[in-house]
Amino acid sequence: MASPLNYIFLASFLLFSLCPSPSFALKKSYVVYMGGHSHGPEITAEDLDRATNLHHELLGSYMGSHERAKEAIFYSYTRHINGFAAILEEEEAKEISKHPEVVSVFLNRARKLHTTRSWEFLGLERDGNIGIASAWKKARFGEDTIIANLDTGVWPESQSFNDEGFGPVPSKWRGSCENNTKAGVLCNKKLIGAKFFDKGYTAAVGKRPSESPSARDDDGHGSHTLSTAGGGFVPGANVLGFGNGTAKGGSPKARVAAYKVCWQETQQGGCYVADILAAIEAAIHDGADVLSMSIGGSPEDYLSDPIALGSFHAIQKGIVVVGSAGNDGPAPETASNLAPWILTVGASTIDRSFTTYVALGSKKHFKGESLTKKALPKESFYPLIDAASANLPNVSSGQSNICQANTLDPEKVKGKILLCVRGVTERLDKGKEAARAGAVGMILANDVASQNEILADPHVLPAAHISYSDGKEVFSYIGSTKYPYAYLTRSRTELGTKPAPAVAAFSSRGPNVISPVILKPDITAPGVNIIAAFSEAVSTPFNVESGTSMSCPHVSGIAGLLKTLHPDWSPAAIKSAIMTSAKSRDNNGKPISNEIEEKATPFDYGAGHVRPNRAMDPGLVYDLNKTDYLNFLCAIYKKPSEIAKFANEPFNCSKSFNAVDFNYPSFTVPNLNGTVTLTRRVKNVGSPNVTYNAVVRSPPQISVTVEPKILKFEKTLEEKEFKVTLKAERAGAADYVFGSLLWTDEKHYVRSPIVVNPAFALKKSYVVYLGGHCHGPEITAADLDRATNSHYELLGSYMGR
Ligand SMILES: *[C@@H]1O[C@H](CO)[C@@H](O)[C@H](O)[C@H]1NC(C)=O
Ligand SMILES: *[C@@H]1O[C@H](CO)[C@@H](O)[C@H](O)[C@H]1NC(C)=O
Ligand SMILES: *[C@@H]1O[C@H](CO)[C@@H](O)[C@H](O)[C@H]1NC(C)=O
Ligand SMILES: *[C@@H]1O[C@H](CO)[C@@H](O)[C@H](O)[C@H]1NC(C)=O
Ligand SMILES: *[C@@H]1O[C@H](CO)[C@@H](O)[C@H](O)[C@H]1NC(C)=O
Ligand SMILES: *[C@@H]1O[C@H](CO)[C@@H](O)[C@H](O)[C@H]1NC(C)=O
Ligand SMILES: *[C@@H]1O[C@H](CO)[C@@H](O)[C@H](O)[C@H]1NC(C)=O
């Protein structure tokens, strides 16, 4: 997991740069975003020249010369995205942002990078599951869908990208492999594109990346994500013998293309926004069908977020864009990639674990995980020591407690099992320190922040990663006896573990901090201990990784299947199909939980856990077109002129459009003030002559009415509108509550979460004093009735009834 360190660094750097510098003007690289182009449907060489010239002229008018502008610009985005990346002085950047053609100017800063068993768990290998054929068969394994991945590149020799049995490259493909050599990336009929983008990195860092100029993956992350989305079948894939099985991607017969935008730097933070935009532009041009981006950063306004901006152009070309939610959970409001046109994916566990048990001298047992091939030398108990008590004389027990490098005293540790606490340093490095000090095994206990999040790592010594609460018990056992001892069992691959899925503690959470009216994440998918291809520059051919980086390409692969099966569906329809068919229960039949011992909510998993077989035949979809997106942008930005630039055509913002009416497959009202009515429309993508009924599960204290309650479709592709009215029944519940709306014809189950915060339903009790009554001296029952009625009438004249 990447740390937020690089952001903190950036933020302070920005502050620093605001101070006037007397000696020289500080230059930095920026992206100048100008919306879309008005090229015709066939983009010509003249179009491109004109666009480039326009950029030179615009910048030249600020720099005083065309030539200087040419020198400063290192990317001209001329095909789909309109804008350029250039080295500018801060003052220049500020001035340019006021130009009428310019939508936004933002710093070229870094974003960070945020599988064998997982597909069986998703039911893709099961046939006839409740009469639903496997999506793989149905969608011909994603045949000829093209999946583009923005990441650290690709290890082309990986068996996952072997092209045996693949026919000619689809004729619509315009991509290629840069540095198409054995040392670079040699393309084939499976891996059909490989490009690298490092000008943004170079401009921001001041030197080229140390890696060689090609899309070759020197890190492993990109090969892992690309093979998860579209890798072919590779039998006998395993990591040190664990999880042995056939590795494959979500769309095993898809073609894949790697766009290398992330370069090695501290903390994997080397994905620069100017490079990301250039790669998205290239992927659109090359003819990708699905764009997978396991990249993110802190949530940002769409107008300065390169992933949001680039994706907006991609979806207009029919490309499905899938992004990772981030690994900054379990705190709320951490999700990134928040634009409503991105399919944002959280991460959850699968029903496989790499189990090792911790046995204590007190006869207590705890279940842990590890990928260590080594077992303890003898099947017997060993002395147990906690690392806080095993510190070297020159270090504090606080440092040794977390098993930081060079903090443990071999005199105290040798021959023992060592209890280390998670946090601050890398988990694998703690194992190395334990081994250095001569420990025979390590128990790695979670700190309070990581709770029940257990990850299987290939430690250098026998090890068991255990939960926070189990760790506390081990500590109290150590404190309870003079001679504590323990044993660790050999780690084994276990399938069918329960409960699964559970939302991973690290998975970033909603609410959406940019537009609270859009629920994020949209969906959750497998992202814990996933086995997929890796870079042989750093490890074995396959490796285990965890993160929303891993769950994102699972959904990209499923989107690829949908593209093969329904080539004419819009990105929004594919997104809707994936969301409304998701499930909210685990393999115990209970509501999905999370790793912090709570019932998960839509802020953890969005619409639920992805269910590919059902997504292939969703029944109804909530579709969206360009007008819908533009109206949404108008509603949140209230700047019609900027929106017109986005649209690259004259566009009048609809004044009456309210963002809650955006045709999203989930319903979110962040501030329910009394009553609100949401409008939606659904399109029948199933057979004609079907009748759907609404089934509502109301959030607590909220009344939900749907009008009409029955939708009859005579034709396929027919659209029907309906309204959902939410009313806060009682005041006071100033927090989010959750429910759902399900449309069903008894064959399809089209489910959307309802997420409401009645925080603003601030009703209170008041006394209305009207003076005295004019009853006679004897007050009669009729007097009382008359008075009561007059009160009803008076108040009714304000409330309408
Ligand atoms: C091609 O890529 C390889 C390996 O990444 C690198 O060593 C070589 O310099 C590159 N060649 C060119 C012409 O950029
Ligand atoms: C993995 O499984 C295959 C097929 O069942 C078998 O041939 C191979 O030896 C196994 N590999 C390991 C390392 O267990
Ligand atoms: C403590 O001293 C040892 C040598 O005895 C040294 O190797 C180690 O780096 C020191 N640790 C710290 C944190 O200063
Ligand atoms: C988009 O959909 C809306 C609602 O169905 C429709 O009124 C509008 O004409 C559509 N716009 C385009 C550009 O297709
Ligand atoms: C926008 O509104 C103006 C004024 O009502 C009208 O003249 C123009 O045709 C409209 N443009 C579009 C694209 O609808
Ligand atoms: C649907 O129902 C209508 C009217 O009942 C009928 O005319 C039509 O043939 C039916 N269509 C199909 C495909 O069954
Ligand atoms: C709620 O609605 C009422 C009436 O429409 C309005 O006066 C009040 O300001 C609203 N409260 C909030 C917090 O928006």
In short:
The chain is built from 21 helices and 38 strands. It has 801 residues and is α/β, with parallel strands linked by helices. The site of one 2-acetamido-2-deoxy-beta-D-glucopyranose (NAG) has 8 residues, from loops.
Defining traits:
single chain, hydrolase, binds 2-acetamido-2-deoxy-beta-D-glucopyranose, Peptidase_S8/S53_dom_sf, seven-stranded parallel beta sheet, eight-stranded mixed beta sheet, globular, Subtilisin-like_FN3, alpha/beta, SBT, 801 residues
Strand and helix layout:
Layout: H1 5-18, E1 27-36, H2 45-63, H3 66-72, E2 73-77, E3 81-89, H4 90-96, E4 104-107, E5 110-113, H5 118-121, H6 135-138, E6 146-151, E7 191-196, H7 199-205, H8 221-230, E8 234-239, E9 242-247, E10 255-260, E11 271-272, H9 273-286, E12 290-293, E13 295-296, H10 306-316, E14 320-324, E15 343-348, E16 352-360, E17 365-369, E18 382-386, H11 397-401, H12 410-413, E19 417-421, H13 427-436, E20 441-445, E21 463-466, H14 468-480, E22 485-488, E23 492-495, E24 502-503, E25 523-526, E26 530-533, E27 542-545, H15 548-565, H16 571-580, E28 593-594, E29 598-599, H17 602-605, H18 612-615, E30 620-621, H19 626-637, H20 640-647, E31 667-669, E32 675-684, E33 690-697, E34 702-707, E35 710-713, E36 719-728, E37 737-744, E38 749-756, H21 781-799
Parallel strand pairs: 6-10, 6-12, 7-10, 12-14, 14-15, 15-25, 18-19, 19-20, 20-21, 24-28, 31-38
Antiparallel strand pairs: 1-3, 1-4, 2-3, 5-11, 5-13, 8-9, 16-17, 16-22, 16-23, 18-22, 26-27, 28-29, 30-32, 32-36, 33-35, 33-37, 34-36, 37-38
Helix pairs in contact: 2-3, 8-15, 9-10, 19-20
